[in-house]
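The methods section describes the discrete structure representation at length, but only in general terms. An entry of this sort, consisting of the sequence and the corresponding backbone structure tokens, reads as follows.
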Amino acid sequence: MAATIAYGDVEVGTELPSRTFPVSRATLVQYAGASGDFNPIHWNEKFAREVGLPDVIAHGMFTMAAAIRVVTDWVGDPGAVVEYGVRFTKPVVVPNDDHGAVVEVTAKVAALLDDHQVRVDLTATSAGQKVLGMSRAVVRLG
């Protein structure tokens, strides 16, 4: 598969389609099963509060993976991602109710690089707070 976005078709400031990702306690259990990360802060409310968290929190890697989907959906090829990194700034708190949490992700092209690559800066928020900092991906375009 190759990137469906052409390098010549983007410029600095090009906005990618934003996405929202619902996160429920069931989502966290499913992710724990897939990732093998069964840390109780991700499913046990009592334990999470005992260690000083406001409630159960989403896995950082889950949040990171949700955010990069904005880029992979845009480019059309997950293999086009050359580099990706974030800093975890705030946890995604997932209450045990019908609504859970929502991670909102926006992204834009921040720099045109050599070899048909672009740097995309992402912003991920939940409950009005930035949950990922320095979230950047380098993507090779067609």
Notes: The longest helix spans residues 60-75. The longest strand covers residues 101-112.
